[in-house]
Write a structure and sequence with these properties.
The chain has one domain. It is built from 5 helices and no strands. About 55% of the residues lie in helices and about 0% in strands. By secondary structure, it is mainly alpha-helical. The longest helix is centred in the middle third of the chain and has 14 residues. Helix 1 crosses helix 3 and helix 2 packs parallel to helix 5.
Length: about 120
C-alpha cells in the first residue's frame, strides 16, 4: 500500500466510525487478509489521536481539520475502541506510540460524508 493510501486508510480508521465498525466486523469474522498491515494502520490511527505537532506540518488548514476530527471522534469513544482492537489483534501487546503526531502525517485529508446512508464496502 502506498504511503498516501496508508495515511488515508489510517485517517478513516481513526476518525470515520463506519470504517472502524466495518474493520471490526471483518476481524470478528476472521476475514482479515493482512493482519500485520492492519496492526500498522491501527498504530498510525492511534497516533493520529495524540497531541498535535508544534512544527513540521504543511498547512494550517490541515492542522485545523485534524483537530476538528479529533474533537468529533471523542463522542464515539474511538480512542479506547482503537486501543481495544489493537490489543485484540496484537495478542494483548500495548502500542509504543510517539508523544505527538509526526508533522508529515498532518494532511488535508477529507473523509467520506458521515450520514445515515450505509458506507460502501
Amino acid at each position: 500500500m502506498a504511503t498516501r493510501e496508508k495515511l488515508q486508510s489510517a485517517y478513516e480508521l481513526a476518525f470515520f466510525p463506519p470504517r472502524l465498525d466495518h474493520t471490526w466486523c471483518k476481524i470478528k469474522e476472521n476475514s482479515v487478509e493482512n493482519k500485520e498491515e492492519l496492526v500498522e494502520l491501527l498504530e498510525i490511527a492511534m497516533t493520529l489521536h495524540r497531541v498535535l505537532p508544534q512544527r513540521g506540518y504543511s498547512s494550517m488548514r490541515a492542522l485545523k481539520r485534524l483537530a476538528y476530527y479529533q474533537a468529533c471522534s471523542r463522542a464515539f469513544g474511538t480512542v479506547r475502541f482503537l486501543h481495544n482492537v489493537y490489543r485484540h489483534l496484537s495478542g494483548g501487546r500495548e502500542p509504543d506510540l510517539p508523544d505527538e503526531i509526526p508533522g508529515e502525517w498532518v494532511r488535508d485529508i477529507a473523509l467520506p460524508e458521515f450520514s445515515r446512508h450505509p458506507w460502501p464496502v
